[in-house]
Amino acid sequence: MKREVINTNDGSTTIYLEKWDEHYHSKHGAIQEAYHVFIKNGLEHWCNLIDSKNPRILEIGFGTGLNAFITYLEHCKHSLTISYHAVEAYPVNQQEVIRLNYVQQLQAQDFSEVFNLMHQSEWDIDLQIDSSFTLRKRRQLFETIDDGADFDLIYFDAFGARVQPELWDVGMFERMYKAMDNNGILVTYAAKGSVRRAMLEVGFIVEKLPGPPGKREMLRAVKK
User: Fold this and answer.
1) CA-CA-CA-CA torsion for 149, 151, 153, 154, nearest 10 degrees?
2) What is the C-alpha separation between 72 and 81, in angstroms, rounded?
3) What whole-number distance in Å separates Cα of residue 115 and Cα of residue 108?
4) Model pLDDT for residues 146-164, shown as the tens digit of each residue
5) Residue-wise over 34-44: b if at least 16 C-beta within 10 A, else e?
6) What is the pLDDT of residues 160-189, one digit of tens each?
7) CA 159, CA 149: separation in Å to the nearest integer?
8) Where are the alpha helices (DSSP H) in the chain?
9) Where are the domains of the chain?
10) What CA–CA distances, in Å, run from 102 to 27, 71, 83, 198?
11) Which CATH number applies to 29-222?
12) pTM of the predicted model as reported, rounded to 2 decimal places
């Protein structure tokens, strides 16, 4: 499928899939969306709620590596210890990675090698990026995820239900519920009624939150 690296409204890049008319991140601002959805309403919220600095994170859609990289930067700022699993079936290629400008836009030049390492490292092994951040990239289809209560926080960043509805149904959220420990949190940019109902059906407590720029709402789900 043809993919093109484009600029979003906050100056950061994303990848556009012409055939689906779909973006990896919001065209209104890739970095702004990542911070709002996954850091502010996910990572920060979980750490404050549980009073812990040791989250186990599962990302659904490693993609450009933006969410993983920003999470790494946050772990450095706040002395967090993070185990981070990122699932991806169709990795971006190195030519696309070179054109992504997250290091520059985040003014994180001191960590440029970390961003490159995240993309260049092998799949399905634990990569100890530093003493308190472990990354495991898992090359697999989302539909084959079968973890059991291993995670505290899920970044659900799959392509939208318009183009891949099978990733937003009851069966998928049953897998997510099973993968989370009690009091675990799932955050996603999506806010469709059908997505919320699927989450509720499997047992999540779901709340609507203000969305990132360009989006009215987002969802956060909790496993009790």
Assistant:
1) -80
2) 10
3) 10
4) 999 999 999 999 999 999 9
5) bbbbbbebbbe
6) 999 999 999 999 999 999 999 999 999 999
7) 24
8) 30-34, 45-50, 66-78, 94-99, 102-105, 112-120, 170-179, 193-202
9) 29-222
10) 14, 13, 22, 33
11) 3.40.50.150
12) 0.97
